Amino acid sequence: MRYNHAVPAPTMRALTPSDTEPALAVINTAARWYREFLPPEEFHDPEMTRERFEAEARRMTWYGAFVKGTLVGVMGLEYVRDAALLRHAYILSDHQRGGIGTLLREHLERQVRGVARILVGTYRGNYKARGALEKAGYRLSPDPEAVLRAYYAIPEDRLKSSLTYERTL
After folding, report:
1. Contact assessment for residue 64 and residue 77, using Cβ atoms and an 8 Å cutoff
2. Whole-angstrom Cα distance, residue 76 to residue 145?
3. Is the distance from CB of 153 to CB of 56 less than 8 angstroms?
4. Which 8-state DSSP code applies to residue 123?
5. Close Cβ partners of 123 (under 8 Å, ≥ 6 residues apart)
6. How confident is the model at residue 158 (pLDDT cuts 50, 70, 90)?
7. Is the peptide bond before 8 cis (omega within 30 degrees of 0)?
8. Beta strand 83-91 with 70-80: parallel, antiparallel or unpaired?
């Protein structure tokens, strides 16, 4: 999908500590739709706390998509051994299906240096993310559980409901 030019083009940039509260609002608002496919014991509200966001920021770089100066999407870029991981992709529902997620993903892909592949984890039931990744040329990893165990630090319950996609560069 291409960007919907009926709205102003988003700007993309690395987030700063002053963006933490707006980023948490985007993440926790966008993640509420997970209740449609996650079992109740795996659904968390809020999805991310300030402490976890800051811990993630020590390992990766958070990026944001801004429309008219308002943060509407976030995504993280983390390097783990021989791969770049695109993580925590959240777009506010009012801005989904307009190309902002694609533009943000493409922005992060252009930042990737020094590795041969990009990995993306998502939930098995997240048909929105899965469709977008497949459309962008990502392929389901041959052994998602092995990839999750090798590259991600996620709780066992979330591991069982997740899978990974990858793309070589």
Report:
1. no
2. 21
3. no
4. E
5. 34, 37, 38, 129, 161, 162, 163
6. confident
7. no
8. antiparallel
Please state, in angstroms and rounded to a whole number, the distance separating the CA atoms of residues 166 and 20.
28
Of 163, 154, 168, 169, the C-alpha closest to 44 is: 154
Environment class of 108 (CB within 10 Å of its CB; exposed 0-12, middle 13-18, buried 19+): buried
User: In what side-by-side order are the strands of the sheet with 83-91?
Assistant: 11-14, 60-67, 70-80, 83-91, 117-123, 162-168, 139-140
- The CB density around residue 26, as the number of other CB atoms within 10 Å, is 23
Give pLDDT tens digits for 50-63: 999 999 999 999 99
Predicted TM-score of the model (pTM): 0.91
Rounded Cα–Cα distance for residues 147 and 36 (Å): 25
Contact 129, 91 (CB under 8 A): no
Tell me the residue length of the chain: 169
- Phi/psi at 86 (5° precision): -90, 125
CA-CA distance, 62 to 26, in Å (whole number)?
13
Q: Enumerate the β-bridge partners of residue 13.
A: 64
